[in-house]
Structures are given as structure tokens and as C-alpha cells.
Amino acid sequence: MIPYGRQDISEQDIQAVVNVLKSDWLTQGPGVPRFEKTVAEYCRAGHAVAMCDATAVLHAACLALGLRPGDTLWTSPNTFVSSANCALYCGASVDFVDIDPRTCNMSVGALREKLERAERVGSLPKIVVPVHYAGQSCEMREIKALADRYGFRIIEDASHAIGGKYLDEPVGNCRYSDVAVFSFHPVKIITTGEGGMALTNNPELAEKMRLLRSHGTTRNPAQMTGEKEGDWYYQQIELGYNFRMTDMAAALGISQMSRLDEFVRRRRAIAARYDEAFRPLPIVNPWQHPDTRSAFHLYPIRIPGGSGIRKKVFDGLRKAEILVNVHYIPVHTQPYYRQFGFKAGDFQEAEHHYQETISLPMFPSLSDESLAYVIRQLSLILEG
Fold first, then answer.
1. Is residue 307 over pLDDT 80?
2. What is the pTM of this model?
């Protein structure tokens, strides 16, 4: 069977983890800071804070930016639920901004219009979370200009996008955001098993997130109330969580980072092959904004004609042992979110996208033979 995504683990990766298992440190050792430094330098960001997963990072980033009850966070409906859930964890409210039908990212035009309406009624968001869908950056320069005008903070949900570029600079450099978030789940660009990381250029935000990931405790005398009683001493100065990453995960991440550019090159080559093969077919290939270079976490095609035709293609590919998937069911249509008053029809571009989309296999170890098989099977189904 051919999955839609999978990890690529080398002997070097395995040995890196084995070395940690044989060391004195399995967690909270030197590996995590090394991994943070590796990613920060790659992305040209000032600070990096590794955590157990990207959901934890989103939660901690919201808390660090002061999101609280009475505040509102806006994000894209075309994402996994964690991009919205992070607001609810803080007791805040959630709303959504519809997508651009070409990029499937948050629409700058829709965001601008929604902000204009919100300003008139005094309901501007505290935080906006643009999601870099499938590995392609949102139009961050334009979103940052709106943030400067309307006073909201920005968390880039770049879970799909490490290794991608925006305006010829690495995604994650936070030039146009307060925090950028990466995911290292096994189907993402690189993996640590589970894992995530926050990037920021703000040292105070970085320190706040470090406190939040480790129960809100510190051994730093400069942060303490009163005198340090001895080398054993620590204080809890925040209500934090256990969001820590292990050194085993960090070792895998460091090793994977050495092949990040190779992974992205292969993903782009697969995307180019799909683009070429599907040009004559009645499908819509992923459109690439000229300001971006996607990392291609996903290759989502759109099959015009609605969910019935999409289901026929989906079922046909699954029958051919090609384990395609759908990304994403719009968050606002989920039963949990309907209790807040959201309903079908609220964000029509995201809903239209969901009715037509299928994510094809996209991972670096996808062989040329398997790639050709996917193309051939999809062509046969569409021609049948």
C-alpha cells in the first residue's frame, strides 16, 4: 500500500537516538537546546522553544501573548482542529476567516473585510493564526500590515511548512509574525516522532514559553522572589504545563534537519511530476503564489463536480491500495464547534474546497515506480 505521507528514517537517525539512549540524559539534557539552535539558525530566527507537539506550542504561544477569557482568536477553517482549539484552552473565543480559493490559505481580502466590520462593532481579534496549508506560506507581509493597522498579534501555524520559503526567506524567521509554529509529526517534513517548536524574535516571548512548557518553574535567580536557597532550589512563578521535548526526540530532529533540504527538493520534484502529468486531466493542481516556495507537506488536488465525484475517485484510489486522504474537514462544521453557532455555509470557500479535495501521496521516499502508479490509477479512474 502507498500511504499519503510517511516518515523517512535513516541509519544515521537511528544511531542518533541510540547514542542518547546510551548517554546520561534521556530528557532535559543538552539535546533539546542543540535542536533549538539548529532550527533557529536554519530559519534565521532569534529564538526557538521545542515542545512535545505542535498543539502544545500553539497553546503556549497563545498564553505567552496574553490570550484570555473575553478575547478572540481568528484562524482558517481549512486546518486541523488544533489551530482553533488553542484559543479555547485559554478560555478565549474562536472565529474564522475564509480561504483564498487558489492558495487555500487565509484570504487577505476576507481578513481585511472582516477586520473592517469588527472594528465598527468593537470586536477585533487579539490573535490571528494564518495556517500555511500544505506547506505554502500565507501572504504574511499583507497580514502583518493589517496587524499593524488593527493591533492584533500573529501566530503563524507553519506546521506544514518547515523548509519552505516566503519572499526568498525561510518560513519561520518571524519577520511578519510574533511566533511561528512547526510540527514534527511523522507525516510532516521532518519528524521527532511527536514534537513541535515555536520560533520567535522576541526574547520575552521565548522565555515565557520556556516557563510554560515546564510547569512554570525556574532555577534562574533573576526570575525568583527572594534569595535562592541553594543549587537544588527552584520556584514556580507561572502556572505551566509539562510540554517538554525529550532528548531522544531532539536527537532525531537534529539528524533529520541535516536532510531537510534534500527532503524538500524531493517533494518539489514529486509535485512537478504530478503537475505535468495532471495538466490534461479534469482536476485542479495546487496553485503556487509567486511569492512562495512550498515545502509540499501535502499535494492536494481538487476534483470539480462536488463530493460525489470526489468520493468515486477517493474510493477508487483506496481500492488500488493508494491511501489518499482529505485535508481538511472545515473546523467550523465539526459538531463541537456547531455549539458556538457555526454552521454549514458560513465559510463557503473552505467548504467548497473540502467537497472537492484529495491529498495524493507525497513523501521523499515515494519511488518513481509508485509515483507513476499513482498517476496511472488516477488517470484510469477519471477516464473511466
1. no
2. 0.97
